[in-house]
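Structure in, sequence out. Go:
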């Protein structure tokens, strides 16, 4: 099995359940309030570990209770958090999340120490950039650090995956370092200017990303499933239908998908086999509230696939 190195954010999620998401200027009375572990990097690392991957995590957290709890929780899940950096000069990241009665959410993040993860911090994980490893990143840490990590991974012979969330413009020199890009519909539109609403527009957006240097695009479309496009000769394009489930909370579905995807790839599955495994993990996650609390174990994913 290939090792997985996840580089990214760690947050503490403060979640309020509301009947409907507020409009600008509107106050909505909510119900249950919970505090959960979160952050795209930490969520994806946890999802990969619970799905069976051998995971190392690099992040920057504050020297505070939120940071200590995050590292303790991830370590208890079997994740190597040795490279993580405790920052005495910045608080840990936090996120305020509103979740409505249909499972849709809106999120505001105060990045804290996540914004201080600099390219020099990659030295803490130097021993984990190994040929054949998989390196997974997102965009909740500085873009310069993301690009430096992708370049270092490429030079070491690692397979690179980028989940381009939250959406922001990305230079072509960064995208050219990505082996597999996993945008959702809005992120794909942000990167290409093409609104994704069906297979034809998904194919057009993927082609635009191929022209920017991305070898493989895996476009996630929620209840419409996943669209895979490979630029290599013979790769082609293929749609994978979603599993039909009743969503309670979609907060970490994309993170679970990405974590389960790299776990499946690390054990040698091809994309055609890894994608349904990742979809099953995400389908299970949206049926439970919370971010890290919703991440399924491998046994549950396998049972879901057998019953599907």
């Amino acid at each position: 099995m290939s090792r997985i190195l996840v580089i990214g954010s760690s947050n503490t999620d403060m979640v309020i359940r509301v009947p409907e998401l507020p409009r600008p200027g509107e106050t909505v009375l909510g119900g249950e309030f919970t505090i959960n572990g979160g952050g795209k990097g930490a969520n994806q690392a946890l999802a990969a570990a619970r799905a069976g991957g051998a995971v190392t995590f690099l992040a920057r957290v504050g020297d505070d209770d939120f940071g200590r709890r995050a590292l303790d929780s991830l370590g208890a899940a079997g994740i190597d958090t040795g490279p993580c950096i405790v920052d005495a000069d910045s608080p840990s990241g936090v996120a305020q999340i509103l979740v409505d009665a249909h499972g849709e959410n809106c999120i505001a993040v105060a990045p804290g120490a996540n914004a201080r993860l600099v390219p020099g911090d990659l030295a803490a994980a130097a021993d984990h950039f190994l040929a054949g490893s998989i390196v997974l990143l997102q965009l909740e840490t500085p873009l310069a650090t993301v690009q430096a990590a992708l370049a270092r991974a490429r030079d070491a012979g690692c397979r690179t995956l980028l989940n381009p969330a939250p959406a922001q413009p990305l230079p072509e020199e960064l995208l050219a370092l990505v082996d597999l890009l996993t945008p959702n519909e809005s992120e794909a539109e942000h990167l290409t200017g093409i609104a994704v609403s069906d297979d034809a527009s998904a194919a057009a957006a993927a082609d635009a990303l191929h022209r920017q240097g991305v070898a493989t695009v895996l476009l996630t479309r929620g209840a419409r499933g996943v669209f895979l496009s490979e630029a290599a000769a013979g790769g082609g394009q293929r749609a994978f239908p979603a599993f039909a489930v009743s969503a309670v909370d979609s907060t970490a579905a994309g993170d679970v998908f990405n974590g389960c995807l790299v776990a499946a790839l690390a054990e040698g599955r091809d994309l055609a086999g890894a994608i349904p495994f990742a979809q099953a993990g995400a389908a299970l996650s949206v049926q439970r509230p919370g971010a890290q609390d919703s991440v399924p174990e491998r046994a549950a994913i396998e049972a879901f696939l057998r019953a599907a």
